[in-house]
């Protein structure tokens, strides 16, 4: 019962993200930029604190946009007539988004500008030095991709059903990453067996169709292979 309520809570939270993605063009832009920036971060030798600053900055922009949308929806429930106080509330919320976006540009400038000059070194970094970094970025991009696709198809909920299966995508993403990192047939066999078990459990539980699970697995594998091959 507790686990079911926890899953429902996660569903409600991600449904909120889905709503903002569906209704707010700015959020689609934020998500797209976040994916691009995370991808570019693979090519630079960021320190832990720099990477934390990058993640925190991306999160701040997305959170600000979501709070802005929530405030606008709340005001629209209260009144559908012009009210100077309602205008102030909406303008202040929009201003918060603007400040977070300006902050993101500033942080991006500090993190990327000096590193963008020596182009000859950009493609010669990261994979062997920090496979954990590549794995984390790949996992985040797989998760964002599945959320965007679920919003696009509009079927099921984030954790229960829908196209594609996020569980399968994540499971096969991690299995593929483990294969690249370990370069061991035994590790690859074990991790892919676990991924298949995750996929099978989604089908057996009638949460996903076989097609949704297969598509999720393919997405997880292809995105992971793409990033790990690019970083060689």
What are the salient characteristics of this protein?
mainly alpha; 0% strand; flat; 232 residues; Helix Hairpins
Question: How would you characterize the overall build of this protein?
Answer:
The chain is mainly α. The protein folds into two domains: 120 residues, Helix Hairpins (Orthogonal Bundle); 107 residues. It contains nine helices and no strands. Helix 1 packs across helix 6 and helix 7 runs parallel beside helix 9. The longest helix has 33 residues. The termini are far apart. It is found in: Cell membrane. One of its GO terms (cellular component) is plasma membrane. This is Diacylglycerol kinase. It comes from Aceticella autotrophica. InterPro entries: DAGK, DAGK_sf, PAP2/HPO_sf.
Q: Could you outline the blueprint of secondary structure elements for this entry?
A:
Blueprint: H1 2-23, H2 25-41, H3 48-78, H4 84-116, H5 119-122, H6 131-153, H7 166-182, H8 185-204, H9 210-230
Keywords: ATP-binding, Cell membrane, Kinase, Lipid biosynthesis, Lipid metabolism, Magnesium, Membrane, Metal-binding, Nucleotide-binding, Phospholipid biosynthesis, Phospholipid metabolism, Transferase, Transmembrane, Transmembrane helix
Binding site for a divalent metal cation: 72
GO cellular component, one term: plasma membrane
- The coarse silhouette is flat
The overall number of domains is 2
Find the CATH topology of the largest domain: Helix Hairpins
Mean pLDDT: 81
CATH architecture identity of the largest domain: Orthogonal Bundle
Keywords: ATP-binding, Cell membrane, Kinase, Lipid biosynthesis, Lipid metabolism, Magnesium, Membrane, Metal-binding, Nucleotide-binding, Phospholipid biosynthesis, Phospholipid metabolism, Transferase, Transmembrane, Transmembrane helix
Subcellular location: Cell membrane
Binding site for a divalent metal cation: 72
Binding site for substrate: 65
């Amino acid at each position: 019962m507790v686990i079911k309520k926890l899953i429902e809570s996660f569903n409600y939270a991600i449904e909120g993200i889905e709503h903002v993605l569906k209704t707010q063009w700015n959020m689609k832009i934020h998500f797209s930029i976040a994916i691009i920036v995370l991808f570019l971060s693979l090519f630079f030798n960021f320190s832990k604190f720099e990477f934390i600053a990058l993640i925190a900055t991306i999160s701040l922009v997305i959170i600000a946009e979501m709070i802005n949308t929530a405030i606008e929806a709340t005001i629209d429930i209260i009144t559908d007539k012009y009210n100077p106080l309602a205008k102030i509330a909406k303008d202040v919320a929009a201003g918060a988004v603007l400040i977070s976006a300006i902050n993101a540009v500033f942080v991006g400038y500090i993190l990327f500008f000096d590193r963008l000059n020596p182009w000859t070194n950009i493609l010669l970094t990261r994979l062997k030095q920090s496979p954990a970094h590549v794995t984390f970025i790949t996992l985040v991009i797989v998760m964002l991709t599945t959320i965007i696709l679920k919003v696009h198809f509009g079927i099921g909920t984030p954790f229960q059903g829908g196209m594609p299966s996020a569980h399968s995508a994540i499971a096969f993403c991690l299995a593929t990453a483990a294969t690249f990192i370990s370069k061991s047939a035994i590790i690859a066999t074990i991790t892919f067996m676990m991924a298949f078990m995750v996929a099978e459990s989604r089908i057996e539980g009638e949460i996903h169709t076989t097609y949704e699970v297969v598509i999720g697995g393919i997405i997880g594998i292809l995105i992971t292979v793409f990033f790990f091959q690019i970083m060689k």
